[in-house]
Design a protein that fits this description.
By secondary structure, the chain is α/β, with parallel strands linked by helices. Helices cover about 45% and strands about 15% of the residues. The strands form three sheets. A six-stranded parallel sheet has the order 3-2-1-4-5-6, sandwiched between helices. A three-stranded antiparallel sheet has the order 9-10-11. It is globular, with a radius of gyration of 20 Å. The N and C termini lie far apart (about 60 Å). Bound molecules: 1,4-dihydronicotinamide adenine dinucleotide.
Length: about 350
């Protein structure tokens, strides 16, 4: 006979499942790589998001532990854990939004491209699962190098016949979050009042802050422009070096990922005027993918905005960014087509 405790747990579980199945308002979100440095705080933040009714936490290690922990938070979302490849399909089935921070992070001295060999294969496998189990989900791709993993995901979805460019979004929000913070520091403002568009991609010189378009409008000296551009482009490396071998940005990244996921969910809900920067399939430049401001709606990235007027410094930066981006995109595409 089951003990009282087991019975109680059992009935709690089934009620939770009922609540989730009974169409509690909200969206179903999966995090792939949920036990990692980004995944854990991201799971915490998504569990706090009132737009989330069901939260699936998938990883190849430690998913049950993170799930048990996060599931005790007294917020609305029902949390379920999934461990290892055999449970990937259950983790993905029925999801509206899939956030992917799975993969290895940088150590000091590494570029994001050094991660390609390991992370490319991980992203391919996860995207094959998405194509099979939730082909209509919005995908937020965090795993680096984003400039190559987004093209990899696109090729996987094309092969599977499920590709919709509007639903595949590379997460560059951390670059914007850093830019807002660093610019606010220089201007002596609250970062919440500052809006810096960051375009291009998510690595080194491909990260192109458009300081001439900062809101509130503000002229920067040549020194300020140089300092801010360098600091924004190397913000990730600043954290990698400070952590000295213990990984890359995880907490600020989880914050940025949660902010971007919330933006996507509000778009899915039909809110008007939801605009964020993201690395997407694009016709803004001659490159097939580019980060710029996009408007998010019920079907994903519904509108991609042009870059607007650039100053000379930004035009030079754009040419450099495009050169490096072209190679990273091609590397991703060839990984699947080869
Ligand atoms: P981490 O190593 O702490 O966590 C990664 C997690 O992915 C681990 O729990 C690992 O078990 C899991 N994982 C590995 N293979 C998997 C698979 N096949 N399926 C599911 N899960 C798998 O790394 P961290 O710090 O969380 O970083 C994750 C990724 O995010 C890295 O590629 C990093 O470069 C990237 N990143 C991206 C940023 C961006 O702005 N887009 C910023 C910071 C990091």
């Amino acid at each position: 006979h089951p003990s009282n405790l087991q019975m109680e747990e059992c009935s709690n579980l089934s009620r939770a499942n009922c609540r989730a199945k009974g169409g509690a308002p909200g969206f179903k979100v999966a995090i792939l790589g949920a036990a990692g440095g980004i995944g854990q705080p991201l799971a915490l933040l998504m569990k706090m998001n009132p737009l989330v009714s069901v939260l699936h936490l998938y990883d190849v290690v430690n998913a049950p532990g993170v799930t048990a922990d996060v599931s005790h938070m007294d917020t609305g979302a029902v949390v379920r854990g999934f461990l290892g490849q055999p449970q990937l399909e259950s983790a993905l089935t029925g999801m509206d939004l899939v956030v992917i921070p799975a993969g290895v992070p940088r150590k000091p001295g590494m570029t994001r491209d050094d991660l390609f060999n390991i992370n490319a294969g991980i992203v391919r496998t996860l995207c094959e699962g998405i194509a099979k189990c939730c082909p209509n989900a919005i995908v937020n791709l965090i795993s680096n190098p984003v400039n190559s993993t987004v093209p990899i995901a696109a090729e996987v979805f094309k092969k599977a016949g499920t590709y919709d460019p509007k639903r595949l979004l590379g997460v560059t929000t951390l670059d914007v979050v850093r830019a807002n913070t660093f610019v606010a520091e220089v201007l002596g403002l609250d970062p919440r009042e500052v809006d810096v568009p960051v375009v291009g991609g998510h690595a080194g010189v491909t990260i192109l802050p458009l300081l001439s378009q900062v809101k509130p409008p503000c002229p920067f000296t040549a020194e300020e422009t140089e300092y801010l551009t360098n600091r924004i482009q190397n913000g990730g490396t600043e954290v990698v070096e400070a952590k000295a071998g213990a990984g890359s940005a995880t907490l600020s990244m989880a914050y940025a990922a949660a902010k971007f996921a919330d933006t996507c969910l509000r778009g899915l809900r039909g809110d008007a005027g939801i605009v964020e920067c993201s690395f997407v399939a694009s016709q803004v430049t001659e490159l097939p993918f580019f980060a710029s401001k996009v408007r998010l709606g019920r079907t994903g990235a519904e509108e991609i905005y042009q870059l607007g007027p650039l100053n000379e410094y930004e035009r030079v930066g754009l040419e450099k960014a495009k050169k490096e981006l072209a190679g990273s995109i091609q590397k991703g595409v060839s990984f699947i087509r080869k």
